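Technical annex, item 7. During the second reporting period the consortium partners agreed on a shared format for inverse folding records so that results from different sites could be compared directly. Each record opens with the tokenized structure and is followed by the designed sequence. A conforming record, contributed by the partner at site C, is shown below for reference.
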């Protein structure tokens, strides 16, 4: 086995272990020693790639964001040419679609976004920039399809949509934890809110 392939497999095994631990226990309850002991990873190999827990956690957050960004980019051609409200709705739901199949990554992302370690907030914000750029690019293209009210410029409209997005994500998290709700009802509620929002910014 070539050296590069060994390195790739070593990093992959560390990521899989770290995803499981951070995704199950959160940031505060994880330490390097436990990851190594539980998953049979030598400390030498761990510290060869990651200097400490913060370094490992940030690498996990970066990996989640990279994988999510790649997923979103692949799905964009299917949604970007729909009606504006449907395109934005489907764009908002893309993350939930991805995380439905990657629960540990979802937990890591929620830790990074909702309750990040205070000393890592700046680094996490920087890691999110590629995803933020994709969001802004997509929303700008959608806003070109409509005429905004004179007092609503593009940047303000994007901020409004991002605020709605945060609200939608909280609703989706509640839905995931309470399966008595009907997904079709939830999606219809998202549609209604988007229609109301667009009515408020359209000329």
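Designed sequence (site C submission):
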């Amino acid at each position: 086995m070539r050296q590069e392939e060994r390195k790739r497999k070593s990093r992959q095994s560390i990521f899989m272990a770290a995803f499981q631990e951070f995704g199950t226990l959160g940031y505060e309850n994880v330490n390097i020693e436990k990851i190594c002991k539980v998953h049979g990873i030598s400390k030498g190999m761990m510290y060869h790639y990651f200097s400490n827990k913060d370094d490992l956690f940030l690498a996990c957050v970066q990996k989640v964001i990279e994988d999510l960004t790649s997923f979103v980019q692949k799905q964009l051609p299917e949604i970007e040419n729909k009606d504006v409200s449907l395109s934005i709705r489907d764009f908002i739901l893309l993350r939930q679609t991805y995380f439905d199949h990657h629960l540990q990554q979802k937990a890591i992302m929620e830790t990074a976004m909702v309750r990040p370690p205070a000393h890592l907030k700046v680094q996490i914000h920087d890691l999110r920039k590629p995803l933020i750029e994709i969001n802004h690019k997509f929303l700008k293209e959608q806003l070109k399809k409509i005429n905004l009210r004179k007092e609503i410029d593009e940047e303000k409209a994007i901020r409004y949509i991002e605020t709605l997005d945060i609200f939608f994500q909280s609703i989706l998290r509640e839905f995931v934890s309470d399966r008595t709700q009907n997904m079709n009802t939830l999606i219809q509620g998202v549609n209604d809110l988007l229609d109301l929002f667009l009515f408020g910014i359209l000329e």
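The domain at 53-201 is CATH 1.10.357.10 (Tetracycline Repressor; domain 2). The CA atoms of residues 164 and 194 lie 8 Å apart. All partners now use this format for quarterly exchanges.
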